[in-house]
Amino acid sequence: MLNKSSVHFTTLSLALSVGLTLYASIPATAESPRTPIRQTTPSRGQIRSGRLRFRLPKVGAPRTREPGASRGSSNCSNQEKSVMALLPNTNVGLTLAERPTLFVAIPSSSAQQAEFTLHDEENQQEALYKTTIPIPSTAGIVSISLPSDADSPQLEVGKKYRWSFSVICDAEDRAADIFVEGWVQRMEPSATLVKDLQKATERDRPVLYAEAGLWLDTIASLADLRNASPNDSSLVTDWEDLLKAVNLGTVAKEPLIKLETNTSSTP
């Protein structure tokens, strides 16, 4: 005959056995359905910067990101700083935009103009787009957007484009230009990312872009927010933390300067 303690122990054992069996039968989920990254290959790693978590995609350029250089001798700029493309170390910025915005940190200089060019990866000789841009004499982070006119090319999905930004120190001697190069690639968004962006507020868009590995869209949306709310310290922190996370801390505190591209550019 079983006593009360034996009956209790038997009942508890049976309950645990059934519970474990049911738990083992539940299929494991690989990831949360809210995860928006779909359009890039598996990431090399995640770069955390405060509330932003930038996923570094497995894409790269022929050369990694480097400070600006001069082909000849140049003394028109602050020698302690150089031109720097605001890109990850891979030197490639991914975007969803047909005509994205690119960012370059420039030092203080006596130069008055810069030249921006865009090349197709398949044709490095002829520029798809070229324009001269007036630049300030003070240091800062300038943004260059491809204009939405007929002469401005639209980026094709999946293709890489090389762009360059040259500070013109001497119009008679272009070898003295201080220039920097980078790459841009347009991506097709996943259905999940499209839905998330449609529901997101402007404040939340940088987070979604960062998780999807879309560097250019991340910093462009952050820059827009900063320009709209210049006194919001949390946006300044997000911006500085993001740049520091990709080893761009030396220019993280530079002011944002929007440049107007010349609509009379040459294709």
How would you describe what is shown here?
The protein is an alpha+beta fold and 267 residues long. It has a single domain (45-258), classed as Macroglobulin (MG2) domain (Immunoglobulin-like, Sandwich). The chain is 24% helix and 27% strand. It has helices at 4-25, 191-199, 205-211, 215-228, 233-245, and strands at 45-49, 52-56, 69-70, 84-85, 92-95, 101-106, 113-120, 123-134, 140-145, 160-168, 178-186, 256-258. The strands form 3 sheets. Strands 3, 5, 7, 8, 10 and 11 form a 6-stranded mixed sheet that branches. Strand 7 and strand 8 form a beta hairpin. The radius of gyration is 25 Å and the shape is globular. Residues 1-45 have low confidence and may be disordered.
SSE succession: HEEEEEEEEEEEHHHHE
Structural class: alpha+beta
Main sheet?
6 strands, mixed
- Determine the CATH superfamily: Macroglobulin (MG2) domain
Tertiary shape: globular
CATH domain topology? Immunoglobulin-like
